[in-house]
Amino acid sequence: MDYTATKILIVDDNESIRGLLGVLFRSEHYEVVGDLSSGDNLIATTQRLKPDIICLDQEMPGKDGLTLLKELKELDPKIVVLMITGTQDPEFQKQAVAAGIAGFLKKPFSQTQVLKEFKQVDHDRRLLLNTPTPAADAQPSASRIRMLIADDSSIMRELLNIILTGTGVEIVGEAKDGQEAIDMAAQLKPDAMCLDLEMPNMSGLDALAKIRADHDAMKVIIISGHADRDKVKRAIELGACGFIIKPFEALQVIQTVKKLLLP
């Protein structure tokens, strides 16, 4: 895997936050290629500097972060954006997830929280770059497992799609939050689901309870960045058949899915 320094662009109207994030990222040997106090020149700067990850504030003068996120995704659907936000508004989070956000850096900041979220997204980005797209002959047959992926991270959904398709699993849909996972499970009736525990609109645990109540034969593998014993215990009680803990490698996902789902 390529470990050249990750290039970061910071976009925030607060000079103190730009400085804080810059110092924090440089201390971890990331390359901060620039910072902006507004989104006025964001598209042009992105095209010029070609950052690997953009840290984008939600609230700024002029265009807000959500509008800028949509513009960035129009420029390049695969661009990786972390939203800097102090809101807990589920509707905003839902819109950001729908627009393709990779994750959130939540205010008030803690160094541990910022680095954990950033490193998770950067790990997933690198893994995605180094995971080959399955060949045409790896596509599933009609007899293979039909699976739904539910995760609020655009990178994680794409990564799991590529890894699982390579095993012969058929990905029938991708849900971005807990309620959408419930709705798509009812509509698509997959054999199995990969379900993230931490999602907006409805948590993975709440979604799991509803999904298992309505589809008791469906196998659910929990994807989580937190090995919280109480949550693990509750997920098992609700009928989860296994767990994949982030950050993971492709082989770990493949082995878990083959062990739990494939004949």
Overview of the molecule:
- By secondary structure, the chain is α/β, with parallel strands linked by helices.
- The chain folds into two domains: 7-129, 3-Layer(aba) Sandwich (Rossmann fold); 136-260, Rossmann fold (3-Layer(aba) Sandwich), CATH 3.40.50.2300.
- It is 44% helix and 20% strand.
- The chain contains ten helices and ten strands.
- It has helices at 15-27, 42-49, 65-75, 90-99, 111-129, 154-165, 178-188, 204-214, 229-238, 250-260; strands at residues 7-11, 31-36, 53-57, 80-85, 103-106, 146-150, 170-175, 192-196, 219-224, 242-245.
- The chain has a five-stranded parallel β-sheet, sandwiched between helices. Strands 7-6-8-9-10 form a five-stranded parallel β-sheet, sandwiched between helices.
- Helix 1 links the parallel strand 1 (7-11) and strand 2 (31-36).
- Helix 5 packs parallel to helix 6 (154-165), helix 7 runs parallel beside helix 8 (204-214) and helix 8 (204-214) runs parallel beside helix 9.
- The chain is globular.
- The model is unreliable at 138-142 (pLDDT under 50).
